[in-house]
Design goal:
Order of helices and strands: HHHHHHHHEEHHH
Strand order of the largest sheet: 1-2
Number of strands: 2
Strand content: under 5%
Number of helices: 11
């Protein structure tokens, strides 16, 4: 027997010896998902789609209304003199009469909250909300002792956490700005039920269709 024939025979024997002997082993070797796993994945995907479609029409409206409620609530507390951040504001804005500054800020927040709830001048109101919230970060420069424990920038105090969470509210305002229709309460973008029906997707599909 030639060396070439002997090599081929040895290769075949090794191949049969190393070949998976069970269906499960073959599935693992081929990385083929099990049928049960496929069914579970399909159900999870279907549930995800249903949940997304159910929440899409209300999420932006709910975000706008909740942001408006927060501004009315916090602004009202400042106007009536029961705001828990009165001392923090007094140290951040050390000019003028403390009570007058607090009332003016509260009145401005009440106005912004009313605009958010009504949807009037929505983009302008959201821009003012973002700027107002961004201004609260001046406390880290004006009153660092109230923001950090032991001068450690990683150890926030309760006041520091209160101000830091405003970054999330700023992000919410930016999201609403990108989806708001100017001058109206409509803060959602209509989505086509079928993506194929969208004009931007119809043109490529039509170009790919074969001519009769």
């Amino acid at each position: 027997m030639s060396d070439e024939t002997s090599t081929v025979s040895l290769s075949k024997r090794l191949s049969r010896h190393l070949r998976p002997r069970t269906r499960l082993a073959r599935l693992r070797l081929d990385r083929t998902p099990l049928p049960g796993f496929i069914a579970i994945t399909d159900r999870v995907h279907a549930l995800d789609q249903v949940m997304a479609e159910s929440l899409r029409p209300v999420t932006l409206h709910a975000l706008r209304l909740l942001l408006g409620v927060l501004f009315v609530w916090f602004g009202g507390l400042k106007v009536i003199g029961h705001s828990p951040v009165a001392g923090l504001i007094a140290q951040t804005l050390p000019f003028g009469h403390d009570h007058l500054v607090l009332v003016l800020l509260g009145t401005a927040e009440l106005g912004l909250g009313a605009l958010l709830l009504s949807g009037a001048f929505l983009r302008l109101a959201l821009l003012a909300v973002g700027l107002h919230l961004a201004g609260t970060f001046s406390t880290f420069a004006m009153a660092p002792a109230l923001m950090f424990s032991d001068s450690n920038p990683l150890l926030l105090t309760a006041d520091g956490e209160f101000v830091a969470k405003n970054s999330v509210l700023i992000a919410a305002a930016l999201v609403l700005i990108t989806h708001a229709s100017p001058g109206t309460a409509n803060s959602s973008v209509p989505m086509p039920e079928n993506p194929i029906e969208a004009p931007e997707t119809q043109a490529p599909l039509e170009r790919r269709l074969p001519e009769d």
